[in-house]
Design goal:
This protein is mainly alpha-helical. 60% of the residues lie in helices and 0% in strands. 33% of the residues are buried.
Length: 573
Amino acid sequence: KLEAVVEDEEEDEDEEDWRDYVVEDKEEGEEDDFNGGGGDDGKGPTTLQAFQNLGNPIGQLLQGWGVPDEHVGKMLMRYPWTRFMQKPETWVDRLMRRRAWLQRMGLTDAQILHCVKLASRFLLKEAEDLQENIRFLREYGLDEDQMIHAIARYPEWMCGSIAKSIQPMLRWLEDEIGLPKYRVQKVIAGTPQLLLMSVRKLNPKVTWFRQYGFTDRQLARAISFSGGFLLLSLEKNLKPTVKWFEKTFDLQSFQVVRIISRSPTLLGLRTTENMHRKVKWLMMLGIDKYRVAGMVLNAPSFLGLAMPNLQAKVRWLKEDLGMDDGQLRSALCRSPNLLCLSMADNLQPTVAVLEDLGLSKPEIAKVTSRARFLSCSIDENLQPKLDWLVARGMTKSEVASVVRRCPGFLEVSLADGVERGIQWFESLGLEPGVVTRMIVAFPSVLVFGKLEPKRAFLAGYFADDELVRMITRKPIILGCSLARIRARVLLLESGGILTELTLCSALAMSDENMAKLVERRSGSEHLVDDVIETEPPPPPLLPPPPPTQAGELSSSGSRTAATTAESAALLPS
């Protein structure tokens, strides 16, 4: 179970969130966000006029709150201009009261500034007129944090009608989309703009998503993760983005569905050019288009991050961690969510833990390219596993050796994976100290799965004491699949040469070589030696036995060959 500390998705300067994209128009007859209009059409002040009037009391007040000049000019255009010019002191007093009310609601100064910059019409209403909507959502179940989040993101919803917009939207999310109530509360807190949307305009989008291939569960998951994509235009934004995924990566519809359901915020990017630029950058690193497609399928959210953010992480992996180009490509393809992790909160602290164990930067770079443990939580995942190894009596250097040779065990759940597997070995009658030595010699036993079916099959061909001895001396055989073990056992048994040694050697051979050997040597008295010597094993971790003298072709030479093969058979193929 991976528990990644994923940093908030950052966006390029030209990658604003979905509030600035192509949003559907309001229902006919609905009041616009801002009364009074404005512009160069003669119905209101021009932008130049607005900036020329920054000296009035309202402009001075907004500037004093930290609102940039361009936003002040925008607000002065959108507020009812005649009221401002007739009684500016009255409106200054109202804005001051509204700011104090927001502070009492629990909003920070930064959140209040964001509300003011939106120039929402809620600033023109009295607090008593806004309390009804707030009271309604509280009764629906939103807690204080969710309420503050909703107000800070889009305070305009407090001006909406409960009967005409808010209540129908809540009912639509529950009945039509199938979200439970607690999920609806989360969606409203994250995307309060939905409370002002018409259900009639959302239904065509939902219908299109379902026709494209989204199941009800996938659509509900996407909306609960980020309902903002429902605010976008179907023709100008949603369909072109989906087409881009199909064309760029040669994906089928079910694969695009998987991407969007996992990261619906990608639909909110202003243009697909930003994503295309990141794809080209990955290909410049030496990753071909099909592997980039695999990265997008496994961790699509990195396409929504800012390019400087991605480049900084790759630069850190190469310069600080010391990865070469091949290791970098392997790490990104194996674990693309590296690009989504925070360097300060996840990547750098994890590397520091490994350095404390005694691993060098090149060794960390090597194990990182082979495993995905950099995305694991240190306090809840990595450190408990390292402490567990120490508690079994391992030294610090032995723990480092286990991590160096089998980094994948850091990704496996301690309670449901590692401990359960070790308890199975101990259930065979092995002493805890013997199991610990087994882990030191063969760290891959920590990630073995489905051990009992393999033991039950082998028990039909070996006595209990032989089976326990074989597992103790050569536990690596349990790392093979049950199908592979069964095929090798049946072949060796058909030739009458099934022993511990021949089974371990045969499991290290390829299917093709094993079949050819059995077919060519069927019935030969030298079949045992051929099984052992046909395919040389990888270099053993233990020192090789001393070479035999020339002319020693007797039993001494046979023993040396068997011993070498036996030692090599202990190692993974």
